[in-house]
Amino acid sequence: MVAVLYSLSLSIPLFGDSLGYGYSTVNWIRNNGYSPFAAGLERGEQAMGHPTLFFWMWALLSGLLGNALWVARLLPAAATFLSIWGMYKLGRLLSCEMAGWLSAFALLASPLFITQAMRPMPESAVVAAVVWSLYCYAKKRYISAAVLCALAIVFREQAVFLAGAYFLSELFQTGVKKPLRLLLFLSPALVIVVTGLINLAVNGHFFFPTYMGEGSPLEPNWLAIRLRLFGAHLISEDFRWFPVTAALAGMIRGKGREKERNTLPFVLILLFPSLFFPPERIAFLAFVTFVLAVYAIRQRLVLGRLFTVFIVLPVSIVLFHVLIVLVSPDSALNLFRYVMPAYPVIILGSITMVFRYYSRKTAFIIGSIFVVSTAIANRSQHFDYQFDTSLACAGPLQDYKEAVLYGISLGDTMLVSGIDEVYYSTSECGVVDSPASLRSILGDQPLLEEGTSYTLVVASFMLPYGNTGITEKLLPPGLELRILREPRWDDGRNTIEIYRVEPRVQ
Fold it and tell me: What is residue 221's three-state secondary structure?
């Protein structure tokens, strides 16, 4: 399945941050002796302050195998395979083989994960490292768990909350009786310190300015909005509310004989998503919190190792991204992929509990319905501002590639407005096979040449702020920017249009 996904991804251009700073960082690394310290001066050439291991490996692979899209996709494909394999192994360890397979398929079918799995970005790699770290932790291989946790942080800093979860779990379990183990679980956080010191030495900042500085202006009800954004996405969206609700109902009903079961609370919990539809509301988050607290107290699991980790990791990741706007100048830190390190515990936790508190047949039905439902969720584009959160983004990206190639086929000079320049200059980004004739419209540019024809491709999902207006200001007197009626791409939500400037007829 991963091989099929990899093959399909080769027809889809790079997009978003994989183009904006991923490719830019990789290109800088290649052009500067494969230095692991990204210190470029142009936009995106400092990896946004993140650790550069993933991008350095991408650069190294492209140096060995060639600058091609199929090479760029190798790392995420390998990480996706490791993620799925790890989910199966961990699900089987915590429950049974069927639970392992359903957990693996559920992760692969999840719209956000499968979309990120096609991108040369560290998201799938951090999920793989988190899953295998959890597996080692569950097997009580604590050194391996800590090493893999550190690797996860190298891929994406949010995994530091896994180290925090391990630390709190050990602290609750043994107090300070095992100080070396406490230090072991704290040690992965050194990745943050080392990365910051490297950035300070080569770029002059410990934290990238986007993430740390004067807080953003906050909109009314910002706390509830951001809590719903991240928290509800993690436990509710893409039909995750279904296994979560079923698991909570089973946990409250218990496993005793029929007369000892809590039937009424069981039924009420199952009805909760329909009573408070849609389940992405704050009420559902409060409900999940309450039921988990009741279950933990009743089962005396407050100090349980895995229980602590499975609670602390998603809660801390969500709260961090809710509150980061208090210290970040960027008020738009709202991408769902920030909370992907917590996906394994939500999916595994809910499916494991379903198998614990229901018959195997019922649990299989619940898990199968979830897998199919979350896979179907890939058919729709959920958010305009987060275009790449489901496989629905593949169609418009392929249309964009077709539009660009059509413009080039006209023999025109292509007008570009920034980062989209690489689409036309290298095959590595998945659009052109050879460089095209380009002309930038940004900055202080002279007027367009009267004897040259130009083409401008405008895609709504690329947020082309004012590109047509900018181009019109560069037109010599007597020339006009004309939109082509055909071809035009429109899927009902995204549009791609082609504009031309034709030379003056003498």
Answer: coil
Distant-in-sequence contacts of 365-371, Cβ < 8 A, 24+ apart: 366/242, 366/243, 366/246, 367/98, 367/99, 367/102, 367/106, 367/243, 368/102, 369/242, 370/102, 370/106, 370/239, 370/240, 370/242, 370/243, 371/102, 371/105, 371/106, 371/109
First to last CA, the chain: 58
Taking residues 216-244, report their average pLDDT.
88
Question: What is the structure's pLDDT at 40?
Answer: 79
* Among 142, 145, 110, CA closest to 131: 145
Task: State the pairing for strand pair 454-459/438-440.
Answer: unpaired
**Residue listed under structure tokens 């023999």:** 411
Provide the pLDDT for residue 204.
82
CA distances from 145 to 117, 138, 149, 428 (A): 23, 9, 6, 35
- Maximum Cα–Cα distance across the chain: 94
Determine what percent of the chain is predicted with pLDDT higher than 70.
94
The answer on pLDDT for 215 being more than 80 is no
Assign 439 to helix, strand or coil: strand
Cα angle vertex 315, ends 314, 320, to 5°? Answer: 100
Q: How far apart are CA 420 and CA 20, in angstroms?
A: 9
pLDDT for residue 43 is more than 80: no
- Give the other-Cβ count within 10 Å of 122's Cβ: 31
Tokens for 312? 């602390």
Query: Which of 388, 358, 152 lies closest to 249, judged by CA?
Result: 358
Alpha helices in 360-426 (DSSP H): 360-376, 394-409, 421-425
The residue written with tokens 């436990």 in the block is 235
β-sheet bridge partners, residue 68: none
Q: HSE (CB half, 13 Å, CA atoms) of 101?
A: 5
Q: Residue range 358-371: average pLDDT? A: 94
Q: What is the average per-residue pLDDT within 225-253?
A: 90
CA dist., res. 328 & res. 209, Å (int): 8
Query: Quick one: pLDDT at residue 259?
Result: 45
**∠317-53-40 over CA atoms, to 5°?**
100
Per-residue DSSP letters for 193-219?
HHHHHHHHHHHS-SS-TTTSSSPPPPP
Q: CA gyration radius for the chain?
A: 25
Model confidence, pTM = 0.92
pLDDT at 464: 62
User: Per-residue pLDDT tens for 451-462?
Assistant: 888 899 998 887
Q: Please tell me the predicted confidence (pLDDT) of residue 262.
A: 65
What is the rounded distance in angstroms from the CA atom of residue 354 to the CA atom of residue 366? 8
Query: How many CA atoms within 13 Å lie on the side-chain side of 341?
Result: 34
